[in-house]
Amino acid sequence: MADRIDRHTSGVYIIAATPFTDDGALDLASLDRLIDFYAEKGVTGLTILGIMGEADKLTAEERITVLERVLARTSLPVIVGVSDAGIGNLAALALHAMDKGAAGVMVAPARGPARDDRVVNYFHAVCDALGDDVPVCFQDFPQITGVPVSPRTILELTRDRPQIVMLKHEDCPGLPKITTIRKAEEAGSPRLSILVGNGGLYLPQELARGVDGAMTGFAYPEALVEIVRLHLGGEADRAEDIFDAYLPILRHEQQPVFGLAVRKAILMKRGAIASAATRAPGPRLSATDLVELDRLMARTTDKLKDL
């Protein structure tokens, strides 16, 4: 069984896509290939059933199928997204995932009024339902959830509920939040592992602010691995040189909604999955989009040769 996440977890936890066939069915053979692809690129761990994984478009049975397939396929630590409108459903999926060998679970605040007391009460209820033994990653992604969360609330929750050991940081702009949390830790607040998302778009600056790595789905996971390794090893300038080479295609992937189709098309072109299909309703690339993407991928390859 892989190690569980804790307050010092670091590295790159790649957010895994969920492969579908052209007609929208789960493609388990491609899922196997994708998990192997991520492992070959040197990631520290995986995060499944997240927003990029189109978890909201999967049935309850399909979620179980995906998590069991992934956990049986890899020895890497796996964080399972379990956010759900119902706490009973959330807890059932989370406890099943942990029983199958997951390293932890990821939970986002429930949609609703953006009040700190509501967020606090919700996470206390979640932690009560899960029990103290389940490590929790707090997913802070207000652009999607519609629920901004203050650093004070995050710090209060991780202090009061020790199983909240990790922050998936995707607030934007979010650099001041990282600094606030790290300064509070210097003053005695419990440490949080902080892994960042947003495609890695701000990764060099976030690493400079003291985060522990990345948790995002960029279709060149080896880039994230190298940037994090270099930066944590004290080679910040070299890390930014690598980042700069990937920036045009990374930025292209980050387009709202459309970016998921771009990311899956890159994974298909790199041989990781058989089809770039997203599950309906989802974006599709036109012939013009694909020509544009081929050019971006070729330019990225040429830039890396120079490095």
Automatic annotation (TrEMBL):
The keyword Lyase applies. Keywords: Lyase. It comes from the Bacteria. The keyword Cell wall biogenesis/degradation does not apply. Pfam families: DHDPS. One of its GO terms (molecular function) is 2-dehydro-3-deoxy-L-arabinonate dehydratase activity. Belongs to the DapA family. This is L-2-keto-3-deoxyarabonate dehydratase. It comes from Methylobrevis pamukkalensis. The lineage of its organism: Bacteria, Pseudomonadati, Pseudomonadota, Alphaproteobacteria, Hyphomicrobiales.
